[in-house]
Write the structure tokens for this entry.
Amino acid sequence: MIATAQLLVYLAVGLVAFGMSVWALGDAASRPKGAFTSAGKRTKTFWLVLTGAATALTFIALPPLGQGGLSFFTLGSAVIAGVYLADVRPAVKPYSGGRGGRGRSGRGTPPSRGGW
């Protein structure tokens, strides 16, 4: 009974981490290459490789294959996806040319820093 509950919790945590990794990978792939450097972040290729590896490792770590010793992959992948989604994604979003940017013109341009 307890082992089944533990497995279900482990599976739920793994699925959340996998979902975050897939979301981060898809978002990084959809952003233009120049948005990353314009926002002062690492390159698009860097984030694609990192989030792609995180997605693959999280998938491998899901039960039944990933029981026990592979759980650190789930944690590491969740951290990578979390950093992308919380830090990089908001920074590159205004430079994405109409893909959800909230610039002054509403067309994805970076917001003005004020002044006349």
